[in-house]
Amino acid sequence: MSDDGERTCPLCAEEMDLTDQQLKPCKCGYEICIWCWHHIIEMAEKEDTEARCPACRTPYDKDRVLKVAAANSERIIAEMYSEKKQKSQRAKTKISAEAMKHLSTVRVMQKNLVYITGLPTNLCDENILERKEYFGQYGKVLKVSISRPAGTSFQKTSNSAFGVYITYAKDEEAVRCIQAVHNFVLEGKSLRACYGTTKYCRAWLRNMTCSNPDCLYLHDIGSQEDSFTKDEIISAYTRYFLPHTFCMCDDFLTC
After folding, report:
1. What are 166's strand-pairing partners?
2. CA–CA gap between residue 165 and residue 196 (Å, rounded)
3. Does the global pTM surpass 0.70?
4. Which domains are present in the chain?
5. What is the CA radius of gyration of the chain?
6. How far is Cα 82 from Cα 79, in angstroms, rounded to an integer?
7. What is the pLDDT of residues 124-177, one digit of tens each?
């Protein structure tokens, strides 16, 4: 034992690491490092004699020593891994709790979700919009949700229009839709298409298991580059979509 409390080998005076400390070569308790123990074993084999403990001169049981050392090392590694995992989980829980309030105001762009505005009201029907002659032609449609402005009556008039969210099975299908639909003139109205956004599942934000197997809200942290606060979305929407008087609503899903 050195002055600073570190365990050292009594033969070579080198510090004994965790692996050395698991060796336990002799029942008398005299401990040496693995290098010195191997050296004693090798010298004994060369001289065709028994390898003995330098302290009590008891013959070493090589097989027993190696077996005990391996078992102890595995136990130490398992304990260290378990402790590290527990610390990581505690830190994750703490971060999630602190970030919960912020994440509830964050919206994440979904690369398989398309938001379209300017559609004539005679098409205001989910079943019609998912057909092959409409948005179904660009890929497999998982969900169609019409965006109805909150607090206003939605009337089908010749001058009115509406927005819709189309959820596709694949990202590339959404890209095809945006490329084909954006600025397309339908019944005299110019359509606008862009990626849609969604929010985090309320149950997930509360560290609870979501009970809705069809929930389309987020259950994992989205990428930072695709994440925006509601204020940022409103600001961008005001710059690009205000003339069309539609709300980029992201509360179209049910959880």
Report:
1. 114, 144
2. 7
3. no
4. 1-74 (3.30.40.10), 106-244 (3.30.70.330)
5. 34
6. 5
7. 888 999 999 999 999 999 999 887 655 445 555 555 678 899 999 999 999 999
